[in-house]
């Protein structure tokens, strides 16, 4: 099999730069780090633009993990939507490929005077995408920034060097991306998940399957999992939630959430210790302000052992969420009409220690 080639494109002008290779924290093999070379401003009427891109010459079936980190400043003190979009397309075409064909994560930038950590005025949004090449071809994998349609005179600016994408440089053999049930932007799908009044819900990442299992590669010794949880504060008047789930105006929301990865025995029961992200308290608590409206939580579990004594190599994964206060919350779901995932996880085999 021929090796895949990588051509780094670092801005809308597609300026070639040198990427940085390093050890991946959640991939098998090294990762190419592609920072944004120069600032890019995005604002109405051109409210969506690519900011960082990589060209990949891939053989059919090769899988690559793409992780995007979008840091932006705002020209105003009010709210403006900041959305990161990861997608791959056949080079020199506009046709997205893959199922899902893209991942979106979003949060409102609350203004240039907001005290974000670590840098005031700079909001960071992350997204993860697994691309599996459907055919041998040259592809462009890219991160776009969307600031929402508006007649207002404002713009968000992607911050150079702090904005980047990371791409695995070798195929993630046997990797798979799993997403949750459908839930569109208006929250009217019957499978949408809402939480209020100290409710607890379990969000299973299953791609709509009745058997939400993933099989580790026969040679894998452990696995890594990353997942992005998309949440919305259902404040009064929002078009993102059904009216029956509206809360109050100018009220925040809070949930506790954690990721679980479970190996199964032949009867489908949990076998051995359940791998979890941090326990109760600050490690789980997610606050969504009324102005932020959306929130993204990125989970990561590394080196989950594949236990031969379990009798299968099947795993399932889920996100446990508990509403702890404030407005009702909606969990972002898969959007079939756009083949877009908002809450999703990626399983990756690890073949060494």
Layout: helices, strands, pairs:
Elements: E1 5-9, E2 20-23, E3 30-35, E4 40-42, E5 48-58, E6 63-74, E7 80-90, E8 102-109, E9 123-132, E10 137-146, E11 156-158, E12 164-168, E13 176-179, E14 193-195, E15 200-204, E16 214-215, E17 222-233, E18 253-263, E19 275-276, E20 285-288, E21 294-305, E22 314-326, E23 329-331, E24 340-341, E25 344-350
Parallel strand pairs: 8-24
Antiparallel strand pairs: 1-5, 2-3, 3-12, 4-11, 5-10, 6-9, 6-11, 6-12, 7-8, 7-10, 13-25, 14-23, 15-22, 16-22, 17-21, 17-23, 17-25, 18-19, 18-20, 18-22
Kindly describe this structure.
Helices cover 0% and strands 48% of the residues. It is built from no helices and 25 strands. It has strands spanning 5-9, 20-23, 30-35, 40-42, 48-58, 63-74, 80-90, 102-109, 123-132, 137-146, 156-158, 164-168, 176-179, 193-195, 200-204, 214-215, 222-233, 253-263, 275-276, 285-288, 294-305, 314-326, 329-331, 340-341, 344-350. It starts with a strand and ends with a strand.
Low-confidence parts: 10-24
**Strand pairing plus helix content: what structural class?**
mainly beta
For the sheet with most strands, the description reads: 7 strands, antiparallel
Helix content: under 10%
- Overall outline: globular
- Give the overall average pLDDT: 89
Radius of gyration: 20 Å
Number of strands: 25
Counted by DSSP, the helix tally is: 0
């Amino acid at each position: 099999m021929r090796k895949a080639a990588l051509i780094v494109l670092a801005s809308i002008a597609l300026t070639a730069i040198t990427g940085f290779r390093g050890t991946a924290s959640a991939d098998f093999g090294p990762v190419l780090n592609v920072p944004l070379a120069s600032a890019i401003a995005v604002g109405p009427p051109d409210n969506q633009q690519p900011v960082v891109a990589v060209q990949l010459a891939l053989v059919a079936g090769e899988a690559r993990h793409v992780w995007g980190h979008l840091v932006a400043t705002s020209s105003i003190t009010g709210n403006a939507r900041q959305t990161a979009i990861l997608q791959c397309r056949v080079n020199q075409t506009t046709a997205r490929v893959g199922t899902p064909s893209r991942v979106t994560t979003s949060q409102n930038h609350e203004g240039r005077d907001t005290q974000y950590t670590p840098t005031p005025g700079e909001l960071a949004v992350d997204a993860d995408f697994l691309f599996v090449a459907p055919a041998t071809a040259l592809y462009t994998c890219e991160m776009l920034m969307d600031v929402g349609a508006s007649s207002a005179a404002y713009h968000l600016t992607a911050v150079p060097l702090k904005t980047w994408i990371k791409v695995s440089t070798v195929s993630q053999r046997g990797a798979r991306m799993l997403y949750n049930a459908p839930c569109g932007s208006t929250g009217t799908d019957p499978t949408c998940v809402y939480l209020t009044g100290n409710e607890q819900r379990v969000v299973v990442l299953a791609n709509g399957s009745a058997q939400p299992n993933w099989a580790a590669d026969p040679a894998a010794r452990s696995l890594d999992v990353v997942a992005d949880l998309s949440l919305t504060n259902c404040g009064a008047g929002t078009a993102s939630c059904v009216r029956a789930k509206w809360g109050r105006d100018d009220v925040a929301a809070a949930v506790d959430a954690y990721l679980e990865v479970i190996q199964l025995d032949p009867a489908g029961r949990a076998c051995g210790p359940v791998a979890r992200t941090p326990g109760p308290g600050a490690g789980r608590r997610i606050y969504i302000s009324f102005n932020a409206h959306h929130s993204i939580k990125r989970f990561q579990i590394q080196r989950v052992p594949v236990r031969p004594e379990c009798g299968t190599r099947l795993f399932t994964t889920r996100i446990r969420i508990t509403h702890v206060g404030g407005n009702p919350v909606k969990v972002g779901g898969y959007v079939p009409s756009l083949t877009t995932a908002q809450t999703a996880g990626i399983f990756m085999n690890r073949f060494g220690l």
